[in-house]
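Input structure tokens:
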């Protein structure tokens, strides 16, 4: 099989890794003096709305979580706390060591690249911090499209930006949220990066190819 003309990459647990116990989520309720367990549950529940862009920013999400937890705080106070603690959030997210080399290798072979992510607006900072934005031809984030994987339309947005046909493209991800199934429904080849996550086993059934790392995936895609 010929190498794909375009490759779409997931972001979280694929190109970057976020700590499961990020200090930001402990520091925020402590600074705002709200019940941490209740606040975290309400914050998590707002995840889909944040990723669809319905909750416009991180401060709004924290503010709404406080309200939903029954301990409202005024917006200026929440904004000040979030701004001050935001470095903690980003400090708990690191790039995969193979991400930049793999993006560079694929691009050197003439492959057009996109990042397609279920992510809230603040995740855009990572694309610049880790040098991803300059290494891909398109970034399609759920917060700006209002679409969440596995909706095939979000992959279509990326393919249109790359002027690529699904039959000549591949999607690479960790398999969360049935993202591989959504890509395959559109006709893309699918590659699972096995991260030993709770959803990894079920994602194997939706993958066209399973790889242990990004480097292994790139080698497999570039085989002529």
């Amino acid at each position: 099989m010929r190498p794909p003309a375009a490759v779409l990459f997931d972001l979280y647990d694929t190109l970057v890794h976020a700590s499961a116990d990020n200090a930001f989520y402990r520091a925020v309720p402590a600074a705002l003096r709200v019940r941490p367990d209740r606040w975290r549950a309400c914050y998590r529940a707002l995840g889909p709305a944040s990723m669809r862009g319905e909750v416009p920013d991180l401060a709004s999400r924290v503010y709404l979580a406080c309200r939903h937890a029954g301990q409202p705080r005024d917006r200026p106070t929440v904004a000040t706390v979030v701004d001050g603690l935001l470095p903690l959030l980003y400090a708990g997210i690191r790039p995969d060591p193979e991400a930049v080399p793999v993006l560079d290798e694929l691009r050197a072979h003439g492959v057009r690249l996109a990042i397609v992510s279920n992510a809230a607006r603040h995740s855009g900072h990572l694309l610049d911090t880790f040098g991803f934005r300059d290494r891909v031809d398109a970034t399609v984030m759920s917060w700006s499209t209002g679409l969440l994987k596995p909706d095939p339309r979000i992959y279509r947005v990326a393919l249109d930006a790359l002027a690529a046909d699904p039959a000549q493209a591949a999607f690479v991800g960790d398999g969360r949220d049935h993202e591989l199934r959504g890509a395959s429904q559109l006709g893309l080849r699918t590659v699972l990066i096995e991260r030993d996550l709770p959803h990894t086993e079920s994602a194997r059934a939706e993958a066209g190819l399973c790889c242990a790392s990004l480097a292994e995936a790139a080698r497999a895609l570039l085989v002529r």
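The first helix runs from residue 24 to 32. Strands lie at 6-9, 16-18, 93-95, 112-117, 138-141, 169-173, 189-193, 209-211.
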